[in-house]
Amino acid sequence: MVIGFLSFTDAFAQVEYKIITSVESIVPNGLGRSRIVSASEDKRNKSDRSDIRVKNFEETKLLNFYNLGGIRFQNIAANDAVLTSKINAMIEEGWELAFVTSAVESEAGKGDGNGIFITRFIFKRLK
Q: Which of 40, 84, 114, 124 would be 98's cystine partner, CB 3.0–4.6 Å?
C-alpha cells in the first residue's frame, strides 16, 4: 500500500534540471581552452536567436590535456579534482546526478590539430 502511495506522489512531483558542461581541449601544444560552463538563467519557450543567448553564466577554468611536452596526465587529474568538487557542491545543494553524456569533436583530417572533449552532467532535484 505504501509503495502505491509513493508512486502516486512521485507522479505529481515537480522536477527541475540543470546541466553543467565541461569542455576540455585536445588541441596540441597547450593552445586550446578548457572550461566548466553552466547557465545562471532560465531560457523557457524562447524562439528568437537573440532571446536564446545566455549572458549570465558561470565559467570555471580547467587545464588543457596537452602542452608543448604532449599529453599532461597531471592536468587530467587536476580537472578531475575540479569536476569532483563541482559535482559534490551540486549534491550538497540538493541536486542528484541523473545522467552523464560525453563526446569528442575533432576535425579528423590531415594533421587533425583541432578538437574538444565535451561532457554534460545533467542534474535533477525536486522543486
A: 124
